[in-house]
UniProtKB/TrEMBL annotation, chain A:
Keywords: Cytoplasm, tRNA processing. Belongs to the CTU2/NCS2 family. Gene3D superfamilies: HUPs (3.40.50.620). PANTHER family: CYTOPLASMIC TRNA 2-THIOLATION PROTEIN 2. It comes from Aspergillus coremiiformis. This is Cytoplasmic tRNA 2-thiolation protein 2. The keyword tRNA processing applies. Pathway: tRNA modification; 5-methoxycarbonylmethyl-2-thiouridine-tRNA biosynthesis. InterPro entries: CTU2, Rossmann-like_a/b/a_fold.
UniProtKB/TrEMBL annotation, chain B:
Belongs to the TtcA family. CTU1/NCS6/ATPBD3 subfamily. Residues 1-16 form the signal peptide. Gene3D superfamilies: HUPs. The gene is NCS6. This is Cytoplasmic tRNA 2-thiolation protein 1. Plays a central role in 2-thiolation of mcm(5)S(2)U at tRNA wobble positions of tRNA(Lys), tRNA(Glu) and tRNA(Gln). Directly binds tRNAs and probably acts by catalyzing adenylation of tRNAs, an intermediate required for 2-thiolation. It is unclear whether it acts as a sulfurtransferase that transfers sulfur from thiocarboxylated URM1 onto the uridine of tRNAs at wobble position. Prior mcm(5) tRNA modification by the elongator complex is required for 2-thiolation. May also be involved in protein urmylation. It is found in: Cytoplasm. Its main location: cytoplasm. Pathway: tRNA modification; 5-methoxycarbonylmethyl-2-thiouridine-tRNA biosynthesis. One of its GO terms (biological process) is tRNA wobble position uridine thiolation. Residues 460-522 are annotated as: Disordered.
Length: 361, 585
């Protein structure tokens, strides 16, 4: 028993005064960090212990990093695991972490160049390697994407080879009509960029830093965009149609918990680029479906965080092995073509066809 | 909604006038297309690219030259979302487009676009070169022709449609015609543009296609239409009757209604069904909860309160429909679930985490070995808005009041979400249906098999209750609480097991199991309820189990009222009710 009476002892260690409530339990700072990190620790077990993987070389993981809250927190947690791993002299080889940053200013001109962030990240997490690429490097990484883009965009878009890659990509992106389709297409392009980069540097797995609310919003948005079948790799752990494994270690944590975690580490606070505040008075019809779903998950999540988490869990229960084999894949997003209506076989899936300039509404 | 009603009334009204005016069309025309073209050219010459000035010029000149007041000079910008185009309509009929494109629709009128500013492109099916209409030119779209068109940002056009539109309504309502059904967020893919389209759409193309491609019926089949008197089932009955006659399906149709016993709702809607039965010349069978179960829904609500009564109603309805069909000797019941309902169910099951229902909620036919009565939803691909338009167009007699008891919170939440989605991308309703179909295939085999056996017995009752989600969210709050409890229990459990976990884990794996997380799922064997003989996986079917609870409470309530000495008993009941009320709040 501690010598002095504690008014509100931490329910885990019982030594210190509790400062936070975590899932209805009062905890101190250290126990809080321990609990939250443990959720991710368990999720990384496979790579830490090299389960079902080569035992002699470390498993190479690619980690797309966006300077956002959740990917920064995840990077911090994974780096701590790397520290422990490196401190051990024997044992399993564990994993290597390679962080990939798509330069924010090349995604949207409104994003500031974040070079100091890049340096800070490298300094704070010396056990990881970092690469920063511009968005338009997709042309180098995915050589056939130019042709796919032209076919995807149809008559309304003429690719001009005399322009720079950056301008060509922007020309393509600006021919996509609605905000929903734009967000959808950007998401697909970034996904393909990440996958291609992972393959280039021989990673077998991509670790995504999506937070719980983002995963729930992604699930709902995918369903609303006709991409229901793709949730099995967009929010679930396991094999993706690209031949790489996808993993989402933050799935058991609430965004509020990530925020609390980040507040304990000053280096994280200075690294994180905060999300733009969501404007409440944007008309619903001007939002993209992804934004609407994020708004829905955040507002409903205040009252029913568990229900929102459950959306992702439900999606996670879907079974990849039920996917019909021997089907062709969409040339744009890579999803298997399932239940495509009509006799005309298209190279694009139902959902991609919705976002195409000529056919979208 | 008000605009929609207005428009629909207008459509109905016009449909009646159509025959009369069609033959006398020419004499009603006020403007000559040539005159308008000339006018717009002069306006452009005078004011160049100043669109506001161009519009003002045209309005004032038209007002001067035409006798009487045909023009609405107050600028009312109406957003228009038809034929896949988003733009704004100036109600006198200048059409502006903020980078709009879409399908012109197949019109019953000739349509003239006088391009005031910018360029309009049009694509004719089969041709790869666009037709280009620069500033000052006229794009004439003849009656009945369809084109894909595109107007870039800052392209303005004066659109003039002439056809069978009664001219006295022209300027007030012209925007509701041609490609311009003007209520916001009307479904915007290419098919729904003209009045004719709406009628043909449901009857001819899509509906017939749905029926034939999924071979829903066989010739001579006897089919019961689950009729509630609402718009969906009334449209279903009307369409099925028309198609049956037109394409010789050879079906014997009849109406089957359930009387839940809700005063102020079902009694009125049943009157509508009775009228429909006469109008469509179909036999009608009504099955009442009171005769089947000895309880009306009003009595159930008096007993269990407003919260959770939908469960009773849903379970009872499923059985009642089957029993009604059996009474008629019919093996196929069709219900009026539309695309909106199905989309809502997909979203709801996702929120609820209900995989079994996710696997069967979207299938057009729910059929299983366990039940000999097949259910199908032929309107599965029809938007609710199409159904409303069809009902108005055909002036169908239907009952539009909603159930007086509130809907489930999950459905309310899903419904609000879908209404928002529809505003962003109208096709997303069908996209959700498509997602639902794909996801249904990915539901793990063991869940799928289980759900297949229960499909007929447990189909979720679609579309009950209110549109505005006025429910109190009791179910969601309850689930939230349960999930949090599970979480808390799990975390405590982990703490205790932690030291020996890895050992037990490896042991289990050595046994050849797939790991500890893989749960074995019990397979269900279907039998008959020992009380009522209805198909059930349990000894006693769900309806009988619910009834048992209800009946148990019945005498108890009586005792409490009569013998007030039983203080303990009554106070505990009261406490239970209080607890329930708190959870619901």
């Amino acid at each position: 028993m501690p010598s002095k009476e504690l008014l509100d002892p931490c329910v885990d260690c019982r030594d210190v005064e509790a400062i936070l409530t975590l899932r209805r339990r009062r905890l101190c700072k250290d126990c809080y960090i321990k609990f939250v990190s443990h959720k991710v620790f368990k999720r990384m077990e496979k790579y830490r212990l090299n389960r079902g993987l080569a035992k002699d070389t470390p498993c190479k993981l690619l980690f797309p990093f966006s300077y956002g809250l959740s990917s920064s927190v995840l990077l911090h947690m994974l780096h701590r695991q790397l520290e422990t791993q490196h401190a051990k002299t024997h044992g399993t080889p564990g994993f290597d972490l390679h962080a990939l940053i798509i330069e924010p200013s090349t995604i949207s001109p409104s994003n500031p160049q974040h070079n100091e962030g890049f340096e800070l990240a490298q300094k704070s997490f010396p056990l990881c390697s970092f690469t920063q690429v511009p968005f338009h490097s997709i042309f180098d990484l995915v050589p056939d994407i130019k042709e796919t883009m032209s076919q995807f965009a149809g008559q309304g878009f003429v690719d001009n080879p005399s322009l720079s890659d950056a301008e060509r990509l922007n020309a393509f992106r600006s021919c996509i009509p609605t905000s929903t389709s734009k967000a959808d297409v950007d998401q697909i392009l970034m996904n393909r960029l990440v996958v291609a980069f992972a393959k280039k540097i021989d990673c077998q797995t991509v670790i995504w830093g999506d937070s719980d609310s983002r995963l729930a919003a992604k699930t709902l948005a995918s369903v609303a965009k006709g991409r229901g079948s793709s949730v099995i790799w967009q929010v679930s752990d396991g094999m993706s149609p690209f031949g790489l494994e996808f993993n989402f270690p933050l799935r058991d944590l609430f965004t509020a918990e990530l925020r609390d975690y980040a507040s304990f580490f000053p280096e994280l606070i200075s690294l994180i680029v905060p999300d733009e505040p969501r404007s409440e008075n944007t008309l619903t019809k001007n939002l993209s479906i992804d934004e609407l779903m994020m708004r829905y998950v955040l507002t409903q999540g205040e009252k029913y965080p568990g229900v929102m988490l459950n959306v992702t869990r439900t999606a996670n229960k879907l079974d990849v092995s039920q996917m019909p084999s021997n089907v062709s894949h969409c040339t744009f997003c890579g999803a298997p073509l399932m239940n495509e209506l009509g006799s005309r076989q298209s190279q694009f899936c139902y959902a991609c066809a919705r976002s195409r300039p000529s056919t979208s509404s | 909604m008000r605009t929609l009603t207005l428009l629909a009334t207008l459509l109905a009204f016009l449909a009646g006038l159509y025959n009369y005016f069609d033959s006398r069309l020419e004499q009603f025309y006020i403007f000559e297309p040539g005159q308008l073209h000339d006018l717009s050219q002069r306006a452009i010459a005078a004011h160049g690219n100043d669109t506001r000035a161009v519009v003002n010029y045209i309005v004032s000149e038209l007002d001067e030259k035409t006798p009487g007041s045909h023009l609405n000079k107050e600028e009312e910008w109406v957003f228009n979302n038809a034929g896949g185009a988003m733009g704004a309509m100036y109600i006198i009929h200048a059409r502006t487009a903020i980078g709009t494109e879409g399908h012109t629709g197949r019109h019953t009128a000739d349509d003239y676009f006088n391009i005031l500013q910018g360029t309009q492109l049009a694509y004719v099916p089969g041709s790869y070169e666009p037709e280009v209409y620069p500033q000052g030119s006229v794009h004439h779209l003849p009656r009945g022709q369809v084109k894909q068109y595109k107007m870039d940002a800052s392209c303005f056009a004066l659109e003039y449609a002439r056809g069978w539109i009664p001219p006295m309504l022209f300027f007030g309502y012209a925007d509701t015609f041609s490609s311009t059904l003007d209520f916001p967020t009307l479904w915007a893919t290419s098919r729904i543009t003209g009045r004719e389209m709406i009628a043909n759409l449901l009857k001819g193309k899509m509906f017939h296609e749905t029926i034939t491609t999924s071979s829903l019926f066989y010739p001579g089949e006897r089919v019961a239409i689950g009729a509630s008197g609402g718009k969906d089932s009334t449209v279903l009955a009307s369409v099925l009757k028309t198609l049956n006659e037109r394409y010789n399906y050879g079906l014997q149709l009849c109406l089957l209604s359930i009387d839940e016993g809700i005063k102020g709702y079902r009694d009125d809607s049943l009157e509508t069904v009775k009228r429909n039965a006469e109008q469509y010349d179909m036999p009608l069978e009504i099955v009442g909860y009171d005769e089947l179960y000895g309880w009306t829904m009003d009595q159930v609500v008096a007993q269990v309160g407003k919260k959770g009564n939908c469960t009773y109603c849903g379970v009872f309805r499923r059985q009642a429909l089957d029993r009604g069909a059996a009474r008629l000797g019919i093996k196929h019941v069709v219900t009026g679930h539309n695309a909106d309902d199905v989309a809502e169910t997909v979203m709801m099951n996702l929120l609820r985490g209900d995989l079994p229902r996710l696997s069967r909620g979207t299938s057009i036919v729910t059929d299983s070995a366990a039940s000999d009565i097949k259910r199908s939803k032929p309107l599965k691909y029809a938007y609710e808005k199409e159904i409303v338009l069809y009902a108005h167009h055909k002036q169908l007699d239907y009952f539009s009041t909603e159930c007086i008891y509130s809907p489930e919170a999950f459905r309310g939440s899903a419904r609000t979400l879908i209404k928002d989605l529809e505003k962003i991308r109208p096709s997303s309703i069908l996209d959700i249906v498509k997602s639902g179909e794909d996801m249904a295939e990915l539901v793990p085999a063991e869940v799928k098999g289980k759900s297949c056996a229960r499909a007929a017995a447990e189909e979720s009752a679609g579309g009950c209750g209110s549109q505005n989600g006025r429910s109190r969210g009791g179910e969601m709050a309850e689930m939230e609480k349960k999930l949090a409890d599970d979480e808390a229990a799990e975390s405590m459990e982990t703490e205790i097991k932690l030291p020996e976990q890895s050992e037990s884990l490896t042991r289990k794996q050595n046994k050849g199991g797939k790991g500890p997380s893989q749960k074995t799922i019990k397979t269900q064997t279907m039998g008959k309820c020992e009380r009522c003989g209805y198909i059930s996986s349990q000894k006693v079917c769900k309806a009988c189990a619910l009834l048992e609870g209800l009946n148990k409470n019945r005498p108890k309530t009586a005792i409490e009222v009569g013998v007030s000495l039983e203080d303990e008993e009554s106070s505990s009941t009261l406490m239970r009710q209080m607890e329930k009320a708190q959870l619901g709040g």
